[in-house]
């Protein structure tokens, strides 16, 4: 194939099976090499975001460990009432079910990609052989905003300082007993809410379900023209007037 002009490369969004983004990216990269399409594809990636989970452990629980240890992803703190809070942080895909590809659109390469196991299609394609529309520069800049994380960014491997206090030693959280917390819910299913903070700040959507034991809601929002359900804590949501 003839070498193409780099200025013609654009960003497209591939829809894939949710939860399998990383393995699908690997498959796509292997296919591109096998078919000698490297000159048509510059980059394939997803964007990550940080998710924080908090659990409260009763101080009187017989199963409470005698010692605890902070790690890169787990932080233990003592609450004023003597209970313990475990904060877990993990990195997850900001846009579940989407893969971003910087490529020169070519019919053969497009056919190769969309006929890959796990690939559902391209955002911006009406089907029936219609070529997809690339995302605009503005849309891509929104995706690559500072609160987003490139999948290749290794700085997030150290989410929490792993240094421990003198009073904190190794313990397994598998032996702990979690105190059940019921969150006060200011919403009802069907409410239209605006996301006030986090990865989807500024987006609006409809509440599909509520979980008062976790203090989270499933909100249906539109991401690049496709309805997507995301789980968000109550404190990130506000009624959309």
UniProtKB/TrEMBL annotation:
GO terms for cellular component: cytosol. Residues 146-174 are annotated as: Disordered. The keyword Lyase does not apply. Keywords: Transcription, Transcription antitermination, Transcription regulation, Transcription termination. Signal peptide: none annotated. InterPro entries: KOW, NGN, NGN-like_dom, NGN_dom_sf, NusG-like, Rib_uL2_dom2, Transcrpt_antiterm_NusG, Transcrpt_antiterm_NusG_myco. It comes from the Bacteria. Residues 8-147 form the NusG-like N-terminal domain. Pfam families: KOW, NusG. GO terms for biological process: DNA-templated transcription elongation; DNA-templated transcription termination; regulation of DNA-templated transcription elongation; transcription antitermination. Residues 186-213 form the KOW domain. Belongs to the NusG family. Participates in transcription elongation, termination and antitermination. This is Transcription termination/antitermination protein NusG. The gene is nusG.
């Amino acid at each position: 194939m003839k070498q193409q002009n780099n200025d013609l490369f654009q960003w497209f969004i591939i829809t894939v099976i949710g939860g399998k983004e990383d393995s699908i990216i690997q498959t796509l990269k292997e296919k591109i090499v096998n078919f000698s399409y490297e000159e048509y594809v510059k980059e394939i990636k997803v964007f990550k975001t940080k998710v924080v989970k908090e659990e409260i452990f009763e101080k009187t629980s017989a199963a409470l460990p005698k010692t605890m240890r902070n790690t890169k992803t787990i932080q233990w703190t003592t609450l004023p009432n003597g209970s313990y809070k475990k904060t877990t942080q993990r990195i997850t895909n900001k846009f579940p079910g989407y893969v971003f590809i910087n490529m020169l659109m070519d019919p053969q390469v497009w056919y190769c990609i969309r006929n890959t196991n796990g690939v559902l299609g391209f955002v911006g394609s009406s089907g029936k052989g219609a070529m997809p529309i690339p995302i605009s520069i503005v849309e891509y800049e929104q995706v690559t905003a500072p609160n987003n994380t490139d999948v290749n960014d290794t700085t997030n491997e150290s989410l929490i300082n792993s240094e421990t206090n003198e009073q904190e030693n190794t313990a397994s959280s598998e032996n702990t007993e979690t105190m059940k917390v019921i969150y006060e819910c200011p919403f009802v299913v069907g409410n239209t809410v605006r996301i006030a903070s986090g990865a989807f700040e500024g987006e609006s959507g409809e509440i599909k379900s509520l979980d008062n034991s976790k203090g989270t809601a499933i909100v249906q929002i539109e991401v690049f023209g496709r309805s997507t359900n995301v789980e968000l804590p109550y404190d990130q949501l506000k009624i959309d007037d």
